[in-house]
Prior knowledge:
The structure holds two protein chains of two kinds. By secondary structure, chain A is mainly α.
Amino acid sequence: MSAVLAKVVAHRLFWPVVMLLILFTINLIAFPGFFTISVRDGHLFGSLIDILRNGAPTLIIAVGMTLVIATRGIDLSVGAVAAISGAVACSIILGSPEPGSLATVAVAVSVALLISLVLGVWNGFLVAVLGIQPIIATLILMTAGRGVAMLITEGQILTVNSPPFKFLGSGFWFGVPIAVIIAAVVFGLAALITRRTALGMFIESVGINPEASRQAGVRARGLLFAVYTFCAFCAAIAGLILTANTAAADANNTGLFIELDAILAVVIGGTSLAGGRYSLLGTLVGALVIQTLVTTVYTVGIPPIATMVFKAAVVTVVCLLQSPTTAEAFSGVRRRLALRAGKGVAAS
Amino acid sequence: MTNLLDAPERPKRPSRGGGAADRGIGPGSGNRPDAAGGSRVARIGSGIRSLLTSPKYGPVIVTAVLFVAVFVIGGVRYRGFFSGQVFLNLLVDNSYLIVLAVGMTFVILTGGIDLSVGAVVALSGMIAASLLQTGWSPAVVIPLILVLTSVLGLLVGLMIHVFKVQPFIATLAAMFLARGLCYVISQNSISITDPTFVQLAIARIPLGGNLSITPSVIIAVAVVAVAVWVLHATRFGRTVYAIGGGEQSGLLMGLPVARTKVLVYVISGFCSGLAGVLFTFYTLSGYPLTAVGTELDAIAAVVIGGTLLTGGYGFVLGSVLGVLVLGVIQTIITFEGTLSSWWTKIFIGALLLVFIILQKVLTARRR
């Protein structure tokens, strides 16, 4: 019994899931209807659906970020890339004669996604070819990217009136929010491609020891290009959803701090920033923890602006619980307890 | 003979592009029938080259040259740019950033990073504004802020060292905490009317001629001087460089790695608090959204100033130069008038790129 328990506790998703359950419980106490999902106007409706919908952009970026972090990298530029893709899409829609037509939106979305691929290749080039530390390589695009987005929007907030584009952010399909469906597709594809093929293992091997994996014949350079490009692609999708949700491109605020939320989701999910083993499922739990935390702050009635203090608390607690020092301390206490119990038996 | 004595000090690197050939001298070339004047010129030339290509001095020299070049370009292009006061205003406007960059230099020298500095600047501004509003004396408020931010730095340092949390994540948590506390204190801007603060904000110290500086500049210069002394003349400073060069080696040498690693975050916290106080002298208010993204400016300044992000190499004075380069770019954009402010971001990004590639080239050659 205790062996099973120890196994469960030792599982790396244990603490994140416990955190999520605690947050759910707090919500349930504060708001008894928390788990009810009703159908209104043919759409699913309820707190859980809200969490999924609002958390979708963060989750999408976090999926890309997980793969980047697994290669011992990091991508700080995702927020800027999201802003650029939103700005590009909105400026194309605004510039076209028919902002409401499906073709215009299709062109705008594809151009935005294509540009994000270029940005991702740029990051990949800096990291894989020039060998710059990822945190700094992506810092360049993070700083310059917002400036580029401002150039595209010419410093204005671009408001578009285009139903098909708006649908991307706030539409429903079979009652499920489009954003959630997109997030599910991205998550599913990433899981399928990296876990049903050897790709995921290659990514992990590059993260654990780049030199050894190179000697074993893994093409690290191509892999790095791929993960950074994928991450930028994810960022662009998230940027489009965020922009479509408000139907406005704001170069300064679209995706502000989303890189931090995404990185947090990955870390809470148990993927180490030191690279190597990664868990997409963990990232999913992490993203849910972050979004549930934000919702909890609302439902409990704490001023929403204090959310950041709680985020800080959650990060600190999860990091400390996952720390090797804590694990050692725990096992030390357990051993001492066991010893004492053993001695007690011997004495009696 | 002097050639022979000098020779071993000269770095031995693979000769690329005929480097060894035009250096003219090398190990064992002492008794070559070389004209004395020629070899001296060659020696100075190679000395300059080895300075420029060393990871220690190269980036700093490039930054200094860049700063002078940009300043001269500004002077040629705009009337009234080439004056002492424009230069001094660089210090006046960026005194808080200089203090931040000093703290960041310590952290980056050990190979860490501190993302919390911008939020801590905002937090100390909020604490100052709210306490002064309720009638506290500045003589209590300022030390209190410095102690609080140092303690925050201490907690971050302990989290990083004892619990082995990556600096990136630990300081990220501190950033969230500080920014969140700002909002808890107040969501609106609080203006400061305390006479001491107002005095310090408007005070100008004349330097003769029409030149003047603010008290903040003097504080910033003092911080820089102390930091230079600590890094280059104390054991603690040597240990900071040693940790950046190789933490394991430092540990094996018996250096106090743990204490030093925690202390650099305390220093960064203290500097952020002080920078926050200087910033309130500058703005005379506390606002929860001030200094968003300042941590990036500080990191950029340190990198442009030639500190290697992997730690081990770099100078506080280099970081000061980095701040001045950022400042002069901003000044030029202001003088230009037609360029929008977002060009600043693009320029800073481009500069970062250039300097990082430069660092990469320099360190790659050394190995």
